Amino acid sequence: MSENTNTLNSCYQSFTDLLSNDTKGFAVLVDPDHFNGSDAGSFIRSLPKETTHIFVGGSKIVNGETERTVRSLKQQSSLPILLFPGDASQITDEADGILFLSLLSGRNPEYLIGQQVTAIQKLKRTDLAIISMGYLLIDGGSVSAVQRVSNTEPMSQDNIQSIVDTALAGEYLGMKMIYLEAGSGAKVPVSPEIIRAVKKEISVPLIVGGGIKDEQQKQNAYLAGADLVVMGTAFETKTP
Question: What's the rounded Cα separation, in Å, for the pair 25 and 226?
Fold first, then answer.
């Protein structure tokens, strides 16, 4: 079995283990544009003890910042570090894996398949675990960076059936996980009603993020069926 296959099995197992009723995941999303690598040690020590994963990425990142951020985090933590890239330029083999996103909620071919094709030659030369993920942008009450960069409209929280159908279509297409995202800086997170409805229909791990700012909102997402919750802004360290 190749090293790449072993890494994939290990990384994906860390998510499928969350399907147990007794286990929940918690990931912190680090945006390299808002992260001071020299503070990586104190940043890691500040993370909640229940943290299971670190995601690294953003909508717009200066070339090379992702690699520097991942390297500084790897020196301080043994947690799985996965790329959450806004585009193909953010790929680095310093990470353990990559969440290979397809923006299923939008109809811009660049983010449905274009960036994924662009990434292939880089990915072929890495040992990254490549985990396919259906990404759904949900309206969080503000214009998110994802919306601006991808030039796609978020899905209305009122249209629960459409969200459920899109998530299930992603699973039927072979996506190994589904991510419901209200966007960074969202005024409101994805509603428990949406999480509950999607969780009822899919059999792959369900990740929820965007607009989750406190413990109560986090627990609401878990109770509704999220297998892993992502928080970002509250844990960023600003570069001076």
Answer: 9
By CB atoms closer than 10 A (0-12, 13-18, 19+), residue 62 is exposed
Q: Give tens-digit pLDDT for 17-75.
A: 998 777 899 999 999 988 999 999 999 999 999 999 999 998 777 778 999 999 999 99
Domain around 191: 3-9+24-235
Check which CATH number belongs to the domain holding 221 and give it: 3.20.20.390
Q: How many domains does the chain have?
A: 1
